[in-house]
Amino acid sequence: MECGQELSSPVAKMKFHEFVVFREERSVSETTTSGTISVKNFRESLLFVFDETFDNVHGAFLDPSESLFPTLEGISATDASRPVGVGCSSVAAQVNHLNFYFDVAFQYMRGENPGRQDWASSWAKTEVTEEEWTELKEELRVRQRTLVELINGTTSWDSEEIIGGAFAAVAHTAFHLGQIRHSLCVFRQG
């Protein structure tokens, strides 16, 4: 799947409530009876949520136009450089932190030990020019593609690193998306 394009799976074109009904109606031959989830179903579900988080709202948990990349496209470098409040980070810092986070998360998800990290440095880039802002967003897009490739390339979902890393990536990205969307309210007020 090319990032930014719609998923070809019929699951990706559904609203969340339709997805739940679809899953309940599947025949026994398409699911396992051992209490485990098939890799195909797990992967499709995970990609469905990631696609909504990054690009295309399907109705699972976001409202239209609230995915990460559409949100970022509406933010100028000037606004991305503004701290939301005293002692708060800027949107540019949020995106830089996500890039840093994914670099560490990919190592973890591959079963590698990323070692101690200087997480404070991930927040250091607070102000950006238009070129730097474009570059930060492009770097995040590269990490999104890497994440999709990692998920699609994973054949065994039996380790804490890959499963925990995938769930953490959804939660962490969604958290920062919320922080960034909250920043938009602050920008509009002042």
SSE layout and pairing:
Layout: H1 16-25, H2 39-54, H3 68-73, H4 77-80, H5 91-109, H6 130-153, H7 160-189
Helix pairs in contact: 2-6, 2-7, 5-6, 5-7
Question: In summary, what is this structure?
Answer:
By secondary structure, the protein is mostly helical. It is built from 7 helices and no strands. It has a single domain, classed as dinb family like domain (Four Helix Bundle (Hemerythrin (Met), subunit A)), CATH 1.20.120.450.
Task: Please give a structural write-up.
The chain is mostly helical and 190 residues long. It has one domain (10-189): Four Helix Bundle (Hemerythrin (Met), subunit A) (Up-down Bundle). 57% of the residues lie in helices and 0% in strands. It has helices spanning 16-25, 39-54, 68-73, 77-80, 91-109, 130-153, 160-189. Helix 2 (39-54) runs antiparallel to helix 6, helix 2 runs parallel beside helix 7 and helix 5 packs antiparallel against helix 7.
